[in-house]
Each structure stands twice: as structure tokens, then as C-alpha cells.
Design goal:
alpha+beta; 3 domains; 7 helices; 17 strands
């Protein structure tokens, strides 16, 4: 307790006199350009660790506040425009487990990032009316539940998918419609590919989960979606994934799996305001 009071007294002096304080393993003096100078070769600086939900519960966060986000697995700093990631991925970084299917390497889980490739924050939008009116990128969890997010990842609108800042991490991209078609072909055609892509059992999928083997290793889950009225539908029944390719009607091509069928479905009615899951493909 005595040591704690001494430490508090030191910091109180710093706060009032702006003197430099050093906590240095080698006993050297603090650098005069720093108010606090930490020197060691055996330990690191450990910032506060918290989830996105806990971070967002901070009342009036100060500009410059730094935390380690355990949801996104990265350092973040508070700026005047919101939270920004300080973690820059390398060109070889793999953020999720991967699986090689034929000539393709896929992420084996749904994308769960909250920033674009350059570190800009993608807004989380929970309100139905606000979601419907968007023409820019956004994400949400199914039913706005972080528990669902931990299982199924985030749902993104197509504006996030198509944003020039890049939704996919460095070294990855959102698959085109043609690349999804290649996946179906590699698995024996769309009429049977779905069963090979779905996780087995009915823990996540609703009863039936017809002919699900997951023999491809894709580990498809029924994350449902958020549709253009802002409401959430079909968790447990459908898994929907965006492609990067616009369709003939001004929307975008999607792929989906269903609990009661073995197909890998292709649909051209992906309205850009919808929220669907995303899988990334290695460049």
C-alpha cells in the first residue's frame, strides 16, 4: 500500500509540474521529451482490454484514448470521428482459419471485421429505418446481438463489400460471382455442393439439415440476413454470402445454403441494402 501511495504521489507531481518520469529497468533518466518514459527489454506495455460492446459503453471517450479490442483482436484509438484501428495487417496475415478447396483458398469462417483495410471504421447500424436508408457501408449482428456475432460473424450491406477502401483484409478479396461458380464446380456442381459446404447436425441449422457433410471444410453456417426493410430473417434456415459482382437488376449476385436442401443456390436478387455474411478468398 505504501508503494501505491508513493506512485500516486509521483504521478500527481507529473500532472502539476509536467516533469518527466521514468520507469526504467536500467535505472537511466527519463527522456525529457516524454512525460512518462518506460524502458525495458523483458516486458511490454499492456493497455486496457475490452470487447466492442464494453468499449462502446465508455461514457464520452476522450480523443486519443487507446484500448485493445478483444472482439476485433487489435489496438484502437479514439479520434474525433470515432474509433480507428491501429493494427495494420501484413500481406501474409491470416485472420481466420482457412481451407483449400481445389485451386481456391477460402476463409473457413464468416468475416468479422469492423474496419476497412486502411483502418477506417465501418459504422455499426442497429436502427431499422437508418439501415434501410443507407447508401454507404455498414454492418450489424443478427438481431443486433453480440452473441450471434460470436457465432455467425457480422452482416454487411453491399456498400461495405464494394467500398474502395477494401472490406477484405490485405491479401484477400471478396469473391466474384465467377469465383463462387468455380467453387460449386469444384464440389461437383451446385446441385450437390451445398451439402458438402454445410456444417453437420442441428445445433445451428434447423431440423433436417439435409445431407450436410461439410466434406469440403467450408463450414457454412445459417447466419440468416437483414433485409431491405431492416428486419432480420432466417437464422437457422439460410446462410447468405455476398459476391463482389453486380447483377442485371442493379443488385448483386449472392450465394446461399438452405437447411432442407443440398444445393448451393445462386441468386441475382441481392438488394444492396440487405445485410449478408461475407467470406473472403485468397488473392
Amino acid at each position: 500500500m505504501k508503494k501505491l501511495f508513493i506512485l500516486l504521489a509521483i504521478f500527481a507531481t507529473v500532472a502539476t509540474t509536467a516533469q518527466s518520469v521514468g520507469i526504467n529497468a536500467d535505472g537511466s533518466a527519463a527522456d525529457t521529451s516524454a512525460i512518462l518514459d518506460l524502458k525495458t527489454t523483458t516486458q511490454g506495455f499492456l493497455p486496457p482490454r475490452m470487447t466492442t460492446t464494453e468499449r462502446d459503453a465508455i461514457t464520452t471517450p476522450a480523443t486519443g484514448l487507446v484500448i485493445f479490442n478483444t472482439t476485433t483482436n487489435g489496438l484502437e484509438v479514439r479520434s474525433s470521428s470515432g474509433w480507428s484501428s491501429l493494427t495494420t495487417p501484413s500481406t501474409t496475415a491470416v485472420f481466420l482459419p482457412t481451407v483449400v478447396i481445389g485451386t481456391q483458398q477460402w476463409m473457413r469462417e464468416n468475416l468479422d471485421v469492423m474496419t476497412y483495410r486502411n483502418g477506417d471504421v465501418i459504422p455499426q447500424v442497429t436502427d431499422n429505418t437508418a439501415w434501410v436508408g443507407l447508401t454507404t457501408g455498414a454492418w450489424c449482428w443478427y438481431s443486433n446481438s453480440a452473441d450471434n456475432g460470436a457465432i455467425y460473424g457480422k452482416l454487411y450491406n453491399w456498400y461495405a463489400v464494394n467500398d474502395p477502401r477494401g472490406l477484405a483484409p490485405q491479401g484477400w478479396h471478396i469473391p466474384t460471382d465467377a469465383e463462387w461458380t468455380t467453387l460449386g464446380t469444384l464440389l461437383g456442381g451446385d446441385a450437390v455442393a451445398g451439402g458438402k459446404m454445410k456444417t453437420t447436425g442441428t445445433t445451428r441449422w434447423n431440423t433436417l439439415n439435409t445431407s450436410a457433410t461439410n466434406e469440403s471444410g467450408f463450414a457454412g453456417l445459417p447466419g440468416g440476413g437483414r433485409f431491405d426493410d431492416g428486419a432480420f430473417y432466417y437464422v437457422g434456415v439460410y446462410g447468405h454470402w455476398w459476391s463482389a459482382t453486380e447483377d442485371y437488376s442493379g443488385g448483386a449476385w449472392i450465394r446461399y445454403l438452405k437447411n432442407s436442401n443440398v444445393n448451393l443456390y445462386r441468386d441475382g436478387s441481392g438488394i444492396k441494402e440487405n445485410g449478408f455474411s461475407v467470406r473472403c478468398l485468397r488473392d
